[in-house]
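Extended Data, record Unconventional myosin-Ia
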Amino acid sequence: QDNGFEQFVINYCNEKLQQVFILLTLKEEQEEYVREGIQWSPVEFFDNSIICDLIENGSRGILAMLDEECLRPGAVSPDTLLGKLDQVCGGHGRYESRDTQSARRLHDTSLPPRAFRIHHYAGKVTYDVSGFVEKNMDLLFRDLSQAMWAAQHPLLRGLFPEGDPVKASLKLPLTAGAQVKASVATLMRNLYSKNPNYIRCIKPNESKAPMVLAPELVLAQIRYLGLLENVRVRRAGYAFRQHYGPFLERYKMLCSKTWPRWAGTERAGVEMLLSELPVPAAELAFGHSKVFIRSPRTLFDLERRRQERVAQLATLIQAAVRGWRCRTHFQLMRKSQILIAAWFRGHA
């Protein structure tokens, strides 16, 4: 119920992770249809980059204003910080405090006087500004880092690399918020360079009891994890997509015109293959380099047909091998019989 500086930076990190999820799943999913030339009606989803910008903007973000207050000469208090935030961020649609509500002629008694509220992707969160400045300035002084480095212990040197005299700098140490921002930026660069797979864990109840499902709790998690938008995009789009070459190589045995070899282009081969199968036209879309299949049921049917065809081909190969062995055995026996008969007639 009481959220301070720690929860603020945690929620900031969660917003950045949600932004990665949105960009790499929902946005990339829809952009692929455009790249492939597929007819597509875009599905609207909330892009939380506006919230990330509110927090991390280099000149007008909350973290930037917090750093300014920490470095400002004179008396600094939660009230001066809140006034600064109201002045700079008050016009943002995702930020509110008592003063900004008064300016909009809104009155919310649930919002304390020394607090601001951010409309996060997962919902509204109220932060008490008391302690923000002190916790943001909770720095490790340079001489302490250098003392740890001077101990010449490998572990201590690994924990305090900034104490290395070679890397000594006269600049002020980074504030806690700036360190979190830099750490999150490094994490984002690492994630964007990968091909992520997402596993979403849903907590079924608050008491950790087995076989108990709390629908309200589950629904709230589904909403703030962004799963509803993901389902809408997946439903409106295509469940399966693959390049023409691998698709043709896997399923060409299902069509007599593409099996065992296809002389034309890969796309023409896939179109010929699917035209010979009882697949509805609405289930298929042909892009510039990929074939798209809308329903998983259609893909399962293709796999079932392929398994049946593989069994038929295996039976055919077995029959051919057995026939070859029988013919070879028969020819050897016939050759031996002719040889024996010739020797017998010669002896007679």
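Summary. The chain has three domains: 5-138+175-193, 199-235, 240-298.
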